[in-house]
Structures are given as structure tokens and as C-alpha cells.
Amino acid sequence: MKRIPSWYWSFGVINIALGIFSQLLPLYAYFLGAKAGEVGLLAAVGSATTIVASLFWGKVADKTSNHRPLVLLSFFGLALVYAVLAFLGDVRPLFALNAGATFFWTSAGTVSTLLVLATFSRTQWERELGLFNAVSGMGWTAGLVLGALWTTILARLVGEAWSLRSLALVAALMAMGAGTMALRFLPKFPSSIQGHGLQWLTAAVGTFVAELRRYGPLQLLGALNPVQLFRFFQGRTAFGPELVLCYYGEFLSFVAFALVFAPFPVFLRQNLGWPNELVFSLYVAHHLVSIFAYRWARRAIERFGHRPALALALFLRVGIFVGFAAVGAGVPKSLLPIFFGLAGLSWSFFQLSTMALVSRLSPPALRGQGLGIYNALSGLGNVVGASLGGFLADGFGFAAPFLSAAALLFITLPVLLVEGRPAD
């Protein structure tokens, strides 16, 4: 059996914290009185932050070969944000907190793929990205399991409020542990920055401040330049029309995903009456399936190509989203875990295909920015989808965002089938 690189496990641990936070935030907002529209807006704020943060961190990643400080800044920054969550008693501060958490995580999320690509040969990329995603998925699933057990036991002892707040402190401890592991195990690529321990964290803060002053405002203004946007939409950039076409399909896909999954925890709590522990448990099933499906996704990519694997994932989700609407209309609730498990299967195909495709189609010197644009477009898609999803759910019922997402994915399928052969 292949030995898993030690530094993968630091990302496994941070994903425990991320898995906890992914459901803790909407459930805590719902506990504080938020409705589906506010929960959707909360997700949209985080996604909007992803747009700017991805462009910024992608630029920083291409300007330095030393990605280690960026990971450390991310992990320790998340530990601070999660600790603050435990002491908030109103919905409004959650918006700023989610923006901060997203900004910090985007730093590590952007360079994590670059670390894998830099460590292994091109022929091993799909295999290693699949293994890395599997380890991250195990961590995320462990976080969901921990959240389910924590809210089940403590809610009966200290009440729902403190069961959720104490869970935020657990997430903070996990993020702190991940940062400590990264200090020890993360690869040290050539860099002018030397040192160990807290010196790496100091370097991370210095890198952040310097690059923000140099590139942050200019990068954002450049991204909003109408001429540059028009050229990008035409594919007349260094990235080429093939990658831009891929971006189109991915953006539409993320809009559809957010239409469904942003208001979904409220759908489970409000319409189906599920308690917090069952909400966590459902997401556990989703991520367990995705972990084991990465090997199938890799084999499908090798046999059929990246775009057909993407199309298969979207076709499955069309049926899944229609199934969600059917459950809301009276179909037995026992089918929901099956649909959610299939959603996990489709996610492994989608994530591995898109990350590998973007990595291969991006020019080597611009690979960090290529991945940053991918993350930015996913954030933009989530902003649009989460905002519309909450509005549609509050105004027309949850079937409206579910069926709208299914229709959008069906329209997206031809975009991703234009080129069916694997990228070189």
C-alpha cells in the first residue's frame, strides 16, 4: 500500500475543523433566529470573499515558491476565528466572521494543490490529487461525525446553545493542532525565508502584508477592468479558450450547487424537522461516499477523459436534486440518505476532474493564478446560487431552488462535453 505523505495529515486535521464549521455555522445561525434567506446570504458573503481572496492568494502563490507560511497563516488564523464564534450571540457578526474564515482558508486551499503538483511528477497528479482529496475528505467526515456526537450528547446536558458554542471551541483546537502539524511536516521548498517554529508564522504575516499592499488593490481593479473581462470571456488571454470554456461550465455548476446546498440545512430543520445530530449525520454519509469514490473517479478519468467524468457527475446531480424536491413533496424521507450518498459520489468525480483539468490546461508559470481563478469563479457561483437559493426557498418553497438547480445543470452539460478527450 502506498505510504501517505505526512503533511497530508495536517490537511486532514484542518478538514476536521472545516467539517465542523461547515454545518455549525448555518445551524448556529438558525438557532439565533436566521431564516433560509439569511442563511443563504451568510453563505453568499463567504463565497464573495472567496472571489477576492482567490485572486489575491493565487497572485501571491505565483510570486513565491515558499508556500509553507501561507498554510501556517491559514491554519492559525482559522483557529482564532473559530474561537471567536463561541462568544457571539447575534446573527449579524456571523457575516464578518464567515468572511474572515473564508479568507484565511482560501490561502491554504489555493496552495494545497500547488504543493501536491510540486511534490510529484506530472504523471502522478491525478493519483496524488485523489489521495490528497481522500485524506481531506476523511478529515471533513470525521468533523461531521464529531459534530453529530457532540450535539447529541451535550445538547441534553447543557442545552443547544452551549453544545453549539463549545463545538466552535473544538474546531478552534483542531485548527491549532493542524497548524502545529504543518510546522513539523509541511515540505520546505526553496525560499529566501529561513527559520523554524514561530519564525515561519512571522514570515507568513510579513508575506501577507507585503503582498496585500503590492498586489491586492491592483489585482482587484484588474479583475474588474471591463476590457480585461471581455477578453477573458472570449478566451483571449494567456489561459486560452479551452480553459475559459471549462471555467464557464464550472461557474454554472457552482451556481446550481449553491442553489441547493446553501439553504439545505434549513430545509432539513424546518421542513423535515430533523434535529442537529441528524443533519450532521446526513453530511457524514455524503463525505464517506466521496472518500471511497475518488478511486473510481480517477479510473473514469483515465478511461474516458476529464470532461465526460464531469458530465457524468452533473447528470447524476440533476436526478439527485429532483429527488430532493420529491422528498419535500412527500416521497419517503428514508430516500434522502441515498440521494445524499449519490451526491457524495458525484462530488468526487466533479472535484477531481475540475482540479486536474484546470491544473493541466493552465500555463505552468500561471498555474497558481489559474487555480485562483477557478476558486474565484466557484466563489462567484456560490454567491449567485446561495443568494437566489435562500430567496427562492423563502418565497416559493424549497422545491423551487432544487428544481432550478437541476435545470441549470442540464443546460450546463453541453458546455462540458464540447471537448471529450483527456488534456495532455
Globally, the shape reads: globular
Q: What is the string of SSEs from the N terminus onward? A: HHHHHHHHHHHHHHH
The percent range for strand residues is: under 5%
Distance between the termini: 28 Å
Distinct helical segment count = 15
Strand element count = 0
- Which structural class fits the helix and strand makeup? mainly alpha
Unreliable stretches covering 5 or more consecutive residues? 190-232, 420-424
- What's the rounded overall pLDDT mean? 81
Helix content percent band: over 70%
Major pleated sheet = none
Cα gyration radius (Å): 20 Å
What can you see in these coordinates?
The protein is mainly α and 424 residues long. The protein contains 15 helices and no strands. Helix 9 (240-261) packs antiparallel against helix 13 (336-361) and helix 9 runs parallel beside helix 14 (367-396). It is globular and about 50 Å long. Mean pLDDT is 81; it is low at 190-232 and 420-424.
Structure keywords:
single chain, 424 residues, mainly alpha, 0% strand, globular, disordered C terminus
